[in-house]
Write a structure and sequence with these properties.
The longest helix has 17 residues. This protein has 16 helices and 17 strands. The strands form four sheets. It has a nine-stranded mixed β-sheet with strand order 9-10-8-7-6-5-4-1-11, with helices on both faces. Strands 12-13-14 form a three-stranded antiparallel β-sheet, with no helix packed on it. With 367 residues, it is α/β, with parallel strands linked by helices.
Length: 367
């Protein structure tokens, strides 16, 4: 696979979860096995109303927990999609079995994203996760055994009660795992989540800013030792296993989104489907476009936004693509270069290692 590939992507949002994690801000609803087949039919119907090329860059089943759709429904949905190079399924460790992953592979899945978050049992309980460290490890091994060797996992740092030492233990376990990609996130406490309601008590338990920076540095070093190269602020991959889907987001490549709450980005416009299952169902069954939000930024604002996402990539951005924006921020860019946050070549503008550590500060200057 190659990151030079263009073409649209498809994101399919499955809102069902067995329970909602206390830090999660996505649109999810309680899992009901009796609704799964009907929901899959709604997804197919919405897909049939879209215009696609003969092939897609990627298809991503996200959520929620799209694993809960089951292999049969994944197969049914993929039958109505153009072929894609990369087809990703999100899964929780407690659900994964060797048999199910064999069936998902047969259905057309060739990449699995496992929401591990940590290999520390105490932290997993604090995060409201249903799996243990041992089950997380077994889920990875069962997926590989089933024949899916493109595996990405999520890890969190900067979590309440987490220490540098406990995080290093998680990183040591990572080194033993046959993964090809890892997404690394510091915990963000979002509005309208259970964590937000007790934010004050959680904040005092979080690592200091110094400890958080040390954890990030430890992770970068450990992952590079594993052969996982940092290619975006939060993403690490073995050569050739960079996420086609997420790279499309960062590079501003158009994508369709289907399912309740799903975002799309087509022809420079961004829109979102309604965040309500009943309203989504009614609109799809009536043949009505289920979107309820639409936005198309003026050209300069759109370029600034693309600059912000593109510069997250370690390779940076092509200066020729952002001439007007860069000219309007000439003084800020010179200052960021002088302060060691940015560097430039004849053709590209990119973050330094220091800039990668303090991306939010850089973004504030450039936005």
């Amino acid at each position: 696979m190659t990151l030079m590939m263009r073409g649209k992507s498809l994101y399919i949002h499955t809102p069902f979860c067995r329970k909602k994690c206390p830090y999660c801000h996505f649109y999810v609803i309680k899992f009901d096995e009796n609704r799964i087949d009907h929901f899959s039919d709604l997804i197919v119907k919405e897909i049939q109303n879209k215009e696609f090329e003969n092939s897609l860059r990627s298809i991503y089943f996200g959520g929620g927990t799209p694993y809960l759709l089951g292999p049969e429904n994944i197969f049914k949905i993929l039958k109505h999609c153009p072929k894609a190079t990369e087809v990703t399924l999100e899964a929780n460790p407690e659900d994964v079995t060797f048999e199910s992953m064999k069936a998902f592979k047969k259905a057309g899945i060739n990449r699995v994203s496992i929401g591990i978050q940590s290999f520390d049992d105490d932290l997993l309980k604090l995060l409201g996760r249903n799996h243990s460290s041992q089950k997380a490890r077994q889920a990875i091994l069962d997926t590989v055994k089933a024949g899916i060797d493109n595996i990405t996992i999520d890890l969190m740092y900067d979590v309440p009660t987490q220490t540098r030492a406990t995080f290093q233990k998680t990183l040591e376990i990572c080194k033993q795992m046959p993964i090809t990609h890892l997404s690394l996130y510091n915990l963000t406490i979002e509005p309208f989540t259970p964590f937000h309601k007790k934010q004050k008590s959680l904040e005092i338990l979080r690592p200091s800013s110094r400890e958080s920076t040390e954890m990030l540095s430890d992770a970068i070093n450990a992952l590079e030792e594993m052969g996982l190269n940092r290619y975006e602020i939060s993403a690490f991959a073995k050569p050739g296993f960079e996420s086609l889907h997420n790279t499309g987001y960062w590079e501003g490549i158009p994508f369709h989104g289907v399912g309740p709450s799903a975002f799309s980005y087509i022809d420079g416009a961004r829109f979102q489907n309604v965040c309500n299952m009943k309203k989504y169902e009614d609109k799809v069954l009536q043949g009505i476009d289920p979107r309820d939000f639409y936005e198309k930024l003026e050209a300069q604002a759109a370029q600034r936004e693309l600059l912000m996402t593109g510069i997250r990539m370690v390779k940076g951005v092509e200066k020729s693509r952002f001439k007007k924006v860069l000219k309007s921020k000439d003084e800020e860019i010179k200052s960021l270069i002088n302060d060691g946050f940015l560097k430039e070549t004849e053709q590209r503008l990119l973050l330094t290692k220091k800039g990668q550590l303090f991306f939010d500060d850089v973004a504030c200057e450039l936005i």
